[in-house]
Specification:
elongated, 4-stranded antiparallel β-sheet, 2 domains, Immunoglobulin-like, about 0% helix, mainly beta, 5-stranded mixed β-sheet, 1 helix
Length: about 180
């Protein structure tokens, strides 16, 4: 990852690094560990120290949390819902602070109902969508296998993407064909 904001400096015997939290997708804090070595080379270090010493991570909570709002940039579905076949929905979501698309780190929720019956989700998450209009894109995706007994029923699917404390949702409706 190339960073636009990463800087480093020395002061006395301390090394400092600064990077924008938005570049790391941080909304409330992060885990970290530190290691230091003294010696002529990686394999010849004479002194090594780790923090925390038990090999776990320390946690830093942000003092002022970034407020990130999600924006629904675009949506797509697999066009025609056929009984017994796969039906998919996709959302392209962007961050208000950077304008970057959300392609990981969020939560994707999916719900689909046919005549009041909930259909189990077959697949959900951030996936590269080959059928997206304008060419393949990584988007939040929900996929269901539609039961064969619901030909003619109105399908209602709700899809939500949550990142930090912000959520964006979209409802899809269509009729199931043979």
């Amino acid at each position: 990852m190339k960073s636009a904001s990463l800087t480093g400096s020395f002061s006395g015997d301390s090394q400092y690094f600064v990077i924008a939290a938005s570049e790391l997708g941080i909304t409330d804090g992060f885990n970290f560990n530190v290691s230091a070595a003294v010696g002529p080379g990686d394999s010849q270090s004479s002194q090594i120290d780790f923090i925390p010493e038990d090999g776990t991570n320390a946690h830093y909570s942000m003092q002022s949390k970034a407020i990130i709002k999600l924006q629904l940039a675009d949506w797509e579905d697999s066009a025609v819902a056929h009984a017994g076949k796969i039906f998919s929905t996709a959302l392209l979501v962007t961050r208000s602070d950077t304008g970057a698309p959300v392609v990981s780190g969020g939560t994707v929720k999916c719900r689909l109902a046919l005549r009041g019956v909930t259909v189990s989700v077959f697949q959900r998450g951030f996936i590269k969508v080959p059928w997206y209009k304008g060419g393949p894109k990584t988007a939040a995706v929900c996929t269901w296998r539609l039961p064969t007994r619901f030909i003619g029923a109105v399908l209602t699917a709700k899809m939500s993407v949550t990142f930090g404390s912000s959520t964006v949702s979209r409802v899809f409706t269509t009729r199931v064909r043979k």
